[in-house]
Amino acid sequence: MSNYTSEHHHNERIVQLFQDGQYLYHKGLKAYRERNLSRASKLIQRAIFLEPDNTGMLSQLAVIYTEMGFYQQSNELLDFILKNMNEKMTECHYFKANNYAHLGLFQEAYKAAETYLNEDPNGEFMTENMELLDLLDMGEESDHYSEYDQDDLILKQDQAKSFLENGQLQESIEMLEEIINDYPEFWSAYNNLALAYFYAGDIHKAKLTVMTVLEKNDGNLHALCNLLIFFHYERKDEQVRILSEQLSNIYPMLNEQRYKLGATFSLIGMYDLGYRWLKSLYRTGFEGDVTFYYWLACSAYFTDRIQFAERIWGKMEAEYPGHARIEPWKERLEKQPSLEERLAAFYVSGRKGEKDQLQAVLDSKMAKTEFEAQFVRLLLYGENKKTVISKDALFAYRTAKAIEEADCSVIEEDAMCFWIFHVIQQMRASGVQLRNPSGLAATIYYIWKTEQHERLTKTETAKLFNISSATLTKYERVLKEHL
């Protein structure tokens, strides 16, 4: 009995040790002194998860974020400390000023430095703060500088977000590109731009934008979540597994980060993890929007918390009576068609002369990408020079038309029609620049026919599409590499 008790207490001490935030925090500080910033941030995040009210840990993490180049995340932590924990931690204003300066938001940097000077004129960072103020002083030009730049950024960011939420993707893309040009380290604009590209059907540009963020701002949570979503929709299961495992070990401190992580996990079907973070927000009284309630209800329902899910849905309907979303459990039963399926259906409608239906697609408020809308316009009006059409939409249209003109019977097969647009979307997602729609059309046709065990030579196919056998061989190699 005594041996058991001794061993029990020994194990209990070990468990307490590894559950102790201070233990993790000091390990994080050791890693920080060794300049292993990535390890330091992860250890201190875990420490804060165990001691969420420890302002010293939070401020240390903010400092580490600054040194890692995560200026926005650092300022979010500093704002959280000032607003929710200790408004007298005046050094937070100085740290914020430095972060704003790095982001190129010089007016905000000046304001934060002035606040630090006014609230703590003899503070620990008095000398450094005065040097920063001197550096930021615009002299006689300060009146022109005033608050215009920051106000302009906020206005553009809000407008771009509104465009994105309302499906005005091209307008959102143009505004976000303008923001990035003016503020090249404003990472949230990059993340929103990646989503805008993705919703517009340009997965290649979406992924390039995310990778730009991760190259310059390693570990950016929103970028990693966006990348996980892209992998999910591309059905790249191994990449999804690796990245989701990486994200499952992250302990975000900020509400916005928990929201993003929870919604992302719920979207890809990892409902346990999604529910974990969204419910943690709900417990704190987080005032969510329609999307927050949607994913909380969704993750609750699909983790067998049926009554809670229905209660959350009722709460959302009471707070947002005009919302257009249906219950996620019903939405799963009424599965929405994929983009490939929609494009195939539009093409069939065009062949049947169902112009009223195609016009209704353009006039409706249903969610659609700009690529999709342009493709429908081509089906309605043909290659009219007055209509602004992207190269992608025109290439897709000409590819399908080439197959129809070569063999109109084959495009009447639903499976073949869907596969045409599946191939087109895969090529767009891979970023491969194809310039010959007849070459792609011939290759799609040839692969389809040979898969159906029909006897068809490359020479016969090339002649049918008026291309060379060499072009067909080249395009076949490209398709097999990326499909």
UniProtKB/TrEMBL annotation:
Pfam families: TPR_16
InterPro entries referenced in this protein's UniProt entry, alphabetically: TPR-like_helical_dom_sf, TPR_rpt
Source superkingdom: Bacteria
Name the record gives this protein: Tetratricopeptide repeat protein
